[in-house]
Amino acid sequence: MALASGGPERPESDTRATGQSPMRPHPTLCNNALMISWEPARRFDLPFETRKKRWRGLPRWCGALALVALAAVAGHHLAMQSGLARLREAAEHRLDMLATGLDADLARFEYLPALLEMTPIVPALLGAPSDPGLRDAVNRYLDGVNAAAGSEMLYVLDASGTSLAASDWDRPGTTIGQDLSFRPYVIDALRQGWGRFYGIGITSGKPGYYLSYALRRDQPARGVVAVKVNLEESERAWRLLPGDVALFDQRGVVILATREDLKFRPLRPLEALQRAEVQRSRPYGEAGLEPLQWAQKEALARDVRVVVLDGVDQLASTRTLRGAPWQLVVLDDLAPVRLGARYAAITASLAMAVLLLIAVTLWQRRRAVRQKLANQAALQAAHDSLESTVVARTAQLRAAQGELVHAGKMAALGQISAGVVHELNQPLTAMRALSESATILLDQSRFDDVRGNLHRIRGMVDRLARLTSQLKTFAHKSELQLAPVALAQAAADARLIVAEAAKKNDIVIEVDVQPATLSVMAEEAALGSVLVNLMRNAIDAMQAAPRRTLRLEAMPREGGRVILRVSDTGPGIPPDILARLFEPFVTSKPAGTGLGLGLVISAQLVRAMDGTLRAANLPDGGACFVVDLPAAIRNTPQE
Predict the structure, then answer these.
(1) Does residue 591 sit in the same domain as residue 488?
(2) Would you call 228 helix, strand, or coil by DSSP?
(3) What are the phi and psi torsion angles at 119 (to 5°)?
């Protein structure tokens, strides 16, 4: 098969000299002859300038991401420190209250042993322990004193530690006749004149705090008077407080706790001497003394530590009692604090992203202004030097016109940036309120309510995303996407956002949507923004009003329209402001509290949804804002 003689020759010139793409052969079959033509080869590598621009923008993106990450870390750290400070402050208050109450409970019976020494029949019984009449009199006397003082039990022992008389003499399990010489409070009283001991009763099996006093009218001691105090009432009162409470004795064993699984468990295994002492005096009854799953992670202060108890991080605050060698520990779960810190990190990163977006918008506006000035200078130079070239000048003017349109869009985008900040502040405030509410609900184990708050926060985040998306695509998007929106749900969402401000100012919010299924053709985020702005303005207006009621009403009217009214009982709108209420930067609020853009933005959003927004003062006082929107198709009557 031969080559066609009329075929083109292969170029010999070096294509690099001309800057064109290199040539490659392209064979074709024509009239049984192989034709070879040359065409430019495809270039798969990008031009150097394009690659250079891409690499030049990479550090900016990395810097923006670094700022967002830094904001998230800072927000998490600050929220964590704030949450820990709140927990520590609350724990200090609880410790003050619990320690004071417990010290008072331990000290209010200390006078009883000394009082009995001054009663003649008690020393008389020690001198004649076998006298049945004297023993019966002492039993009845102890019963009366015990009932009047409110102690658990009151009894008298001889010098050998045997119980001679007791307030429970006529009840099963009485201590009368029991040898209690091995109990530490008896040994201490006989040795040093007094004793203190907490343990489980030998006969009753109930734990209590024992106070003992040696009867030393003459030497040596003739006997011991002991009183048993029941601390279970204090323990039950602890369960009404938030968090967990535990009381550790001198051996590090939990003797009182709001959780039953913590009782009679030491922080660490007891030493051999301690175990021998426990087996001899039996303060914990038959408890197994299994050590707690307790590990210290971090010390925040001298008496405040982060510990791990049964695999859960807890904030442990400790206080040593004055009346006994015991330590009172308050435990608070750190999970709600860490959850709040995570939410704060998310909020801070979103806020930083919004600030960066605003900064980029302002930078683009400034760049557009510079470009506009450069274009004007270029047009002037072209007018001065190229008057004869009409076609070239017309092309340049058209290009400049396109740049001016783009510059106008960027300028408008910068003007509405302040309004965007106003719009973003509302859902961010609601997200903070919902996260704080979730922390309280978690402490109360109301997980369904917490889940509901998280769903609402996710809705707020979606709303933020929609707002930023609308701002980013402003140059290409001119109309809202209208769809049927249920007014009852929109009113409920707006009411939730302003609920905290309304509660703070004692404002009653009334919502009346008739019928309940009433819907309008609107953009959900835009309608929610309008409702929240009107309700916030009403709340601000009623701060000093004697009667504070915010009413939101919605009802259909003729012509396929829906009327939505937001009224308040405030002082109304001044006449000089009412005439130009919907002009930019016109506001009745004090300086520094409002930009005067909220109603302007709301009116523009309502007009974009084919509606109107007007305002008027009510005859009985207060202001009323009326929104007129088209009804959704499903609201029309069916034949």
Answers:
(1) yes
(2) strand
(3) -85, 125
